[in-house]
C-alpha cells in the first residue's frame, strides 16, 4: 500500500475513533474524554489531508 493511501486510511480511522470518544465523553459528562475525541478527530483530518497530498505528489 502506498504511503498516501495508508495515511488516508489511518486518518479516517482516527476520525472515527475521535468521534466515538467525543460522543462517549458527552454521554458520560467527561469533558476530558470529549476534548481527547475532538483532538483525535482533528488529527485524523490532518493525516487524511496529508495522504491526499502524497497521493497527488506520487502521480
Q: Could you characterize what this model shows?
A:
This protein is mostly helical and 59 residues long. The chain has one domain. 90% of the residues lie in helices and 0% in strands. Helix 1 (3-27) packs antiparallel against helix 2. It is elongated, with a radius of gyration of 13 Å. The model has no long low-confidence stretch (mean pLDDT 94).
Give descriptors for this structure.
59 residues, mainly alpha, 2 helices, elongated, CsbD, YjbJ_sf
Number of domains: 1
> What is the beta-strand fraction?
under 5%
Helix content: over 70%
Structural class: mainly alpha
End-to-end distance: 14 Å
Based on CA atoms alone, the radius of gyration comes out at 13 Å
Shape: elongated
What summary fits the major beta sheet? none
Mean of all residue-level pLDDT scores: 94
SS field, number of helical segments: 2
SSE string, helices as H and strands as E: HH
Number of strands: 0
Uncertain residue segments: none
Protein name: CsbD family protein
InterPro entries: CsbD, YjbJ_sf
Family: Belongs to the UPF0337 (CsbD) family.
Domain CsbD-like: 7-55
Amino acid at each position: 500500500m502506498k504511503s498516501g493511501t495508508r495515511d488516508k486510511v489511518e486518518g479516517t480511522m482516527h476520525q472515527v475513533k475521535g468521534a466515538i470518544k467525543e460522543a462517549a465523553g458527552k454521554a458520560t459528562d467527561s469533558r476530558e474524554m470529549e476534548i481527547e475525541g475532538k483532538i483525535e478527530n482533528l488529527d485524523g483530518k490532518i493525516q487524511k489531508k496529508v495522504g491526499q497530498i502524497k497521493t497527488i505528489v506520487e502521480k
